[in-house]
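Backbone geometry:

***
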Amino acid sequence: MSRPFNPSTAVLHIRKVKILGVILLLLVTVYLITLLLTNEWNPVKTTKPAVGYAEKQDKIEKDGHLLERIEQRQTERQQRLRDYCEKHASSRNRSDRYHHPVIVNDEYKVIFCYIPKVACSQWKRVFLALDNCIDVDDVHDNKHYKFLLYDYSDEDIKVRLKSYFKFLFVREPLERLLSAYNNKFVNKQWPWKMIESYKTKILERYKQDEPGSNSSDQDLTFKKFIYYVSDVGFDRDAHWRSYGPICHPCDIEYDFIGHFEDMTEEAPYILRQTGIDRVVTFPPFLTHNTRSQLLKSYAPIPKEKIAQLGKAFEEEDFELFNYDFPGPLSDLMHD
């Protein structure tokens, strides 16, 4: 037998539902405000710099010795670049068109030539944030960028190259190669067709180059990858291409040449120099390849192959940007 309808009970029930709804709305509002205040809602664009890089920013502004060290380092890099370009002026081909997607921001008058595997994802997020492009799944898709250098007319390119703040970052070449291999072929952060295309080329050419190893003929090991890059492939893909053909440092007078190894100091410095630090912070990043990891990964590779690799990158990577060869692999080469 059903209970008789009680209006007062129904009203009480409705009130309870409304109260719960208001409480839930308040909780959601508090949660969203917390995300905004703690910089988790938007990890880049903010009026309150993220902890860590904000502290580094303050340290640069207050520490005269740190600022002096950054600027002295920059003076030395710029002079080395000029010396190199003068030395090789007669043998290089000057480029007036830049096919690599160099990022431009007209509001802050900044030009950034990114090099893959040199914290380029973090820098791309900075420039996307400047254009209010926050929720972007693939930062490497050029359609998200408002302006790229090759989109301008020749005259507009000249104007911007002359008057804008221009910078790039480079990285120890052998470490960058290992990072590219791990990212693309181990972690598979690449379209499947690209991975399979390179895998097929490399395995067909070098599948017999690891006798006695535990890998199968179908494993694209780091050793096989290095054989490919040192023999024929160092200029075939931007992720391991020499720095010179990507950013044309002898044709573009960069105002700042950054090193990946000094990113924690130099990224806040650039943001301050350009005024971008008023609205954007630099996202956190990790340096994945330690010296022990490098030695372990390169240990199976013959010395002569490493030397061949160094020769391939000798001028536009090692010499131009003051990296020593074999650098972090000196223990392997001198055994």
Remarks:
- The radius of gyration is 26 Å.
- The first strand starts at residue 103 and ends at 105.
